[in-house]
């Protein structure tokens, strides 16, 4: 159920995440580092010709794994962003 809720919130959270990552007073450096690493890994997977489901053999169905990688990246970034915002809010209360 948590994955479904996270997937539903992806468009909104990605906009907030992008603005937080690229702002001067944004989130902590570790979140930025994770965001960059996750994005690079997904990009490398998309560029490397070896796939779990090759496009050359299965045509359009070979793009399914690429789409799932991008979706998983978006969901993971949103989960990380929520955790970071919760941590910042907890630190502000103290």
Care to give the gist of this entry?
Helix content is 77%, strand content 0%. It has helices at 2-8, 10-21, 29-47, 55-58, 64-93. The mean pLDDT is 77.
Rg from C-alpha positions? 16 Å
Mean pLDDT: 77
Unreliably modeled segments: none
Number of strands: 0
What global shape is seen? elongated
Structural category is: mainly alpha
Q: Strand fraction band? A: under 5%
Report on this model:
The protein is built from 5 helices and no strands. The mean pLDDT is 77. It is 77% helix and 0% strand. The chain has helices at residues 2-8, 10-21, 29-47, 55-58, 64-93. The longest helix is centred in the last third of the chain and has 30 residues, at 64-93.
Topology:
Blueprint (H helix, E strand, L loop, with lengths): L1 H7 L1 H12 L7 H19 L7 H4 L5 H30 L1
Helix pairs in contact: 2-5, 3-5
Characteristic key phrases:
94 residues; mainly alpha; 5 helices; elongated
């Amino acid at each position: 159920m948590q994955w479904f809720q996270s997937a539903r919130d992806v468009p909104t959270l990605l906009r907030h995440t992008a603005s937080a990552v690229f702002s001067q007073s944004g989130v902590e450096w570790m979140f930025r580092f994770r965001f960059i690493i996750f994005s690079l890994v997904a990009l490398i997977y998309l560029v490397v010709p070896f796939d779990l489901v090759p496009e050359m053999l299965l045509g359009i169905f070979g793009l399914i794994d690429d789409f799932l990688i991008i979706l998983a990246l978006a969901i993971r970034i949103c989960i990380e962003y929520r955790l970071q915002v919760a941590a910042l809010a907890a630190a502000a209360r103290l």
